[in-house]
Design a protein that fits this description.
This is Beta-lactamase. InterPro entries: AmpC-like, Beta-lactam-related, Beta-lactam/transpept-like. The protein has about 325 residues and is an alpha+beta fold. It has one domain: DD-peptidase/beta-lactamase superfamily (Beta-lactamase). Helices cover about 40% and strands about 15% of the residues. It is built from 12 helices and 10 strands. The protein has a 7-stranded antiparallel sheet, sandwiched between helices. A hairpin with a 4-residue loop joins strand 9 (about 295-300) and strand 10 (about 305-315). Helix 3 (about 80-95) crosses helix 8 (about 180-195). The N and C termini lie far apart (about 50 Å). Residues about 1-20 have low confidence and may be disordered.
Length: about 325
């Protein structure tokens, strides 16, 4: 029965996106910032990308450019939020407070459920066996896609713990991407430190990195006049203000602030926490991407070469290929 629901949902979404697709969305203008970098954005962009904001770091030089946006334009970074959450874990491990093999059952009461033996490292590496989302109803996702509504709006921390506790951890030990896993990891860090996630990431990362235009999208935090991304239908997307799943994807930032983060994490972070390895063919380093209904993001950082690339697009069309093209140009 679950398989049938998922199949029907997939058909509905695929049909809707193909019919309404992004071809009518035009590339943003005017260009801003560095002429050469803006020119690369024009040449290498994909159909359906709209307003782009980007930076490259090469040694001591930081270069910004945009199309219809600039380095101070506020954007959603989606799942790039996860590397911030993983860095919070790194800090606790570095301070000797937690270990990557600390279990959920050591931090919160989950009885003798399978979740009790899951480690923080498994949550971070997507090997816990937890499902992708706390809400397993595929029709809820379909509805939010078509209406551009925030799918995480009413999700609480209690919902996260309940969904994780009730999971049978199918495929534990195998890599299976889980927003639920990162939502739970953030909740555990909140409980251990006694500090709400939004305050914790502000205190531990935003402030030290001097990221003055970055915040966690808690309910009601996004101003009415703040930029909104576009869905593939061209509709304004609701900002992804969250509580329960905030550690998995609720950060808003700017290219300017993200360049500060890139330099800060190169000096203070550990890229074995939450990052994926970028192949040598794609320019090397480490990466994480992110997507919400109205934004797509790609961040690549190469600490050995002191290089970084960030691209954000205010539609759901991905920026991975564009970012990797910029990374290769730095070689």
């Amino acid at each position: 029965m679950k398989f049938c629901y998922a199949a029907v949902a997939a058909i509905i979404v695929a049909g809707g996106l193909l019919a309404l697709g992004p071809k009518h969305i035009q590339l943003g203008s005017p260009s801003t910032g560095d002429i050469a970098l803006a020119g690369t954005l024009v040449r290498a962009h994909e159909t359906g990308q709209h307003n782009l904001t980007a930076f490259t770091i090469n040694g001591n030089q930081t270069t910004f450019a945009g199309l219809g946006s600039d380095e101070n334009t506020e954007v959603e970074i989606g799942s790039v939020t996860k590397v911030f959450t993983a860095e919070l874990l790194h800090q606790e491990v570095e301070r000797g407070n937690l270990q990557v093999d600390t279990t959920v059952g050591e931090l919160i009461e989950v009885g003798d459920t399978p979740l009790s033996s899951v480690t923080l490292g498994e949550l971070m590496d997507h090997t816990s066996g937890l499902p992708r989302l706390a809400n397993a109803n595929p029709f809820a996702g379909v509805t939010s896609v078509l209406t551009a509504a925030n799918p995480y709006e009413n999700e609480t921390a209690e919902d996260i713990v309940r969904a994780a506790t009730q999971s049978n951890l199918k495929g534990r030990g195998e890599h299976s991407y889980s927003n639920l896993g990162y939502a739970l990891l953030g909740y555990l860090l909140e409980q251990y430190t006694g500090t709400p996630y939004a305050e914790l990431v502000q205190e531990r990362i935003f402030s030290p990195a001097k990221m003055t235009s970055t915040y966690v999208m808690t309910p009601g935090s996004v101003p009415a006049d703040a930029p909104r991304g576009r869905t593939v239908r061209g509709m304004p997307a609701d900002p992804w203000e969250m509580v329960g799943s905030a550690p998995a994807g609720a950060i808003r930032s700017t290219a300017h602030d993200m360049s500060k983060f890139a330099r800060w994490i190169m000096d203070n972070g550990d890229f074995s926490y939450g990052w994926l390895t970028n192949s040598v063919e794609d320019g090397g380093g480490y990466w994480h991407n992110g997507g919400t209904y109205g934004y797509s993001t790609m961040l690549i950082i190469d600490p050995a070469k002191r290089q970084a690339v960030f691209v954000n697009n205010d539609t759901a069309v991905g920026t991975e290929a564009l970012a990797r093209a910029l990374k290769k140009e730095l070689q």
